[in-house]
Amino acid sequence: MKDRVIFVALIVVALSFVVFMGNLMSWLFLVVAIVRLIWTRQPKLILGTVIVCCFVGSFLGVEKQRPVKRPTNYQRILVWPDAFKLNGDSLQFEGKLADKTRVLAVYYLQTKAEQAYFQHLTHPVILQVSGTCSRPEHATNQNEFDYATYLKQQRRINYIVQIEQIRQIQAQKWSLVGWLHHARQVLSCRADHYPPLLRQYFKCLVLGIQTNSFQDTAQQFKRLGLIHLFSLSGLHVFYFVGLFSQLLLRLHLTKETRDWLLLLLLPAYVIFAGSSVSLIRAVSLCWLRVLNRRFSFQISALDCFGWVLLFNFAVQPYVLLGLGGQLSYLLSFLLLFLRDKNAVFKTLWLNLFSLPILLHHVYEWHYLLVLLNLLVMPLFSYAVLPLTLIGAGCFSFLPGFSWLINWGLAAFQTSLLYLARPQWMIVFGRLTGTITLILLILTAIMLTVSKKYRISMGLFLGSIYLTIFLLIHYPLVDRVIFFDIGQGDSILIESRLHKRITLIDTGGRLTFNQAEWRKQKRSARAERVTINYLKSRGIKRIDRICLSHQDADHIGDLAVLLEEMTVKEVAFPAGMENNPQFRHRIWPYRQQIRWRPLQTGAKIQVTPQEELQVLHPERPGLGTNEDSLVLYGQIGGKTWLFTGDLDAANEVTLCERQRLKADFLKAGHHGSRTASAQTFLETVQPERILISSGRNNRYGHPHSDVIQRYQDLQIPFYNTAENGMLLWSSTDGWQTFRHKE
C-alpha cells in the first residue's frame, strides 16, 4: 500500500475545491487528479478511491448546504481562560453555548478592576450574560479580507454575541482539556513579566499566542515572507520533539518509553498551543512518524501526509480555503517530495510554489524572498528558538541574562524589519483563484519535467507572470471608487493605464477623550481597505492626495498612507497649513512630499486628458467644513462634483457664481442636514448622488430629511453604509459590494 493514500488525499482536495468553489479550474484540477490515479493501473486503489470520494463528496455537499440556525439560548457561554483577548476596554473571546455551538463574544469592560480580573483569570468559566446575537459583517470592499467568511470556514463560528452585561461568572468543572488551557494561561501570565520582545517570542513560538503588541510586527514579517516562522508548525514541533527526546535520553529512559510518552503528549500539545492548522498538521505528521516507528507499520512519508490531510478534512472541511491551510499543506508536501534535495534547491522551489498563493492573498512579494528564507530559517532553528527558551527559563533567577537575550532578539528583528520597508517590495496585484491554480499546475509540471525542458518551461511560466503583471498594472478603463471606510470619506480616481492615481481624502477614526486603560490599539481602516485595494490593483504610488478639510474622518489616516505608499503631492484648502492640528499631523513628512494649497481657479490633472477645477475655497481659511475643497470636472466622460463637508450656504453660493451641472454628486457632509440644499440639488440635477457614511453612526447620517429631499427630486442615490464600496468604471458603470446572505 506504499504511496497510495496520497492519491486518495489529492483527489479529496480537488473534490473539495469543486464543491466549495465550483469554477472551471477546480473541475480541471479534479480531472487531472483522476487521470493521474487511473495512470497507476491499480484497480483496487481506483475502486477504493471512488468509494471514499463518494462518501467525502456527500459529506462536503452536506457541509456546504448546512443551514445556519440562530442560537436561541446564548445567555450561557463556556469559555477557556486562554480565550480572552483584551484590547483596552474591549474584551473578545470564543466560547461554546450549552448546545456546543461556537460563538464569538464581544464585551466592553466597565471598570479597570474588571479588566484586571479577565487579564489574570486562569481557570475555565461559565459566563451568564445578557445581550444580542447577530451574524458577523461580511467584507464590503473589493478584495478586502472577509472576516465573516474566515470565522465561518476556519473557526466554525456563524454568530457574534454582543454582551451588554455579565450577570454571573461560575467556575467550570475541571477536565483534562481544562487543565491544558489553564496551564497555557498560567504560562502566558508569567510571561507578561518577561522583557518585551522575549515575551512576544515566547508566547508566539511556545504557546501559539500572538499578542496585540505583536500584530504590527507580524505584518512586517508577512511582507518578508517569514510569518510562517512565527506560526507553530513543523519547524517548531520537530525542534521541541528533538529537545524532549534528548532530555529523556539524559534520564536514561528507553526508546520505547520515549515513544509512548510522545504518543500521549503530542495530542495534548495541540490543545495546549492553540490548535492552529499548521500545528495540527505538524503534530499529526510527527505523531504518525512515531507510531510508524513504534509498531513498524512501514507507512511511507507521503502516505502519512495523505492520512493527516484526510483527518484534517474530516475535522475542518474548509481547511484549504484559507492562506494558512494552503501554505501549510502545500509546503509540507513539497518538503516530503523534495526530501533528498539540497537546501538551496528546496528553498527555491518552495518559494516558486508559494508565490501564486501569496499573490492571490497578499498581492506583493519581497525582492530577497528566496535569500531571506535560505538565511533566516537556519538562524531561527539554531539561535532564535533556543535563546527564547533559555531566556524564559532563566528569567526567575538570572533576569539580566534574559534582558541580554531580549537585546539580541531586538537586534535580529530590527535588521529584518529594515528590509520590510515598502521600497523593498514588488507590488504585483491580485491573482484570481483560477489564475493561481493554473500557475501552480504549470509550476508542478516544470518541477517534474526532465532538466533539458525545465529552462524552456521556466521561460514560458515567466512570460505568463509578465503578461498578468502588465494586464493588472495597465488597465484600459477609468475608475472612480468610493471606499466603504466607515464614518468618513475616501475616494479613489484611477485613470486608464494607471497614468494618474488621485485620492480624495483618506478616511480616519474620530477619537474621543478616554481613560488610558480604555484606549484600544486598532489598525487604520485605510490600511485594511484603501492600501489593500491599491496593492490588489498593482498600485504602489499615488500621484496626489487631495484633502477636503481638517476633520479626522477625512484626513485621519493620512500618515498611514504616507508611510505605506509613494505619494508625490498632497493638496489641501488654502490656509489649512496654518491650522495647528494639521501642522502637527504633517510635521514628520514636511520635507519628503510636495504640499500644495489650493483655492478657487486652481486645477488638478486626474487623467492625461481630463482635469478637475477647484471651485472652493475662494480665500484661505483654517480647513473647517465651510472651507472644504470642492472639485468639479470630467472623469471618464462623465461630470463629477466632490464637495467634502461643505455647508448648505456655501453650496448655494457656488450655484450663484456659476451654473453647475453634474452627472454624479458626492453628497455633502455624509448626507447631514447641514448640506444638500434644495436650490443646490435643483441646479446640479445629478443622475445619482453618492453618500459616504458609517453603519449605525452616532450622527444619524444620512438624515431622513435629506433622503426625503432626494426622493422628492427623484434623484437615485447610493450609500456606502447600505451598499458597501461604490465602484464606477467607464465601461461597466456602477457596481456595489454589500454581501447578501
UniProtKB/TrEMBL annotation:
Q: Tell me the membrane topology, using the record's own terms.
A: Multi-pass membrane protein
A single GO cellular-component term on record: plasma membrane
What does the record list as GO biological process? establishment of competence for transformation
Instruction: Work out whether the entry's keyword set contains Membrane.
Output: yes
UniProt-annotated location(s): Cell membrane
Keywords from the UniProt entry: Cell membrane, Membrane, Transmembrane, Transmembrane helix
> Which PANTHER family does the UniProt entry name for this protein?
DNA INTERNALIZATION/COMPETENCE PROTEIN COMEC/REC2, RECOMBINATION PROTEIN 2
Q: What is this protein called?
A: Uncharacterized protein
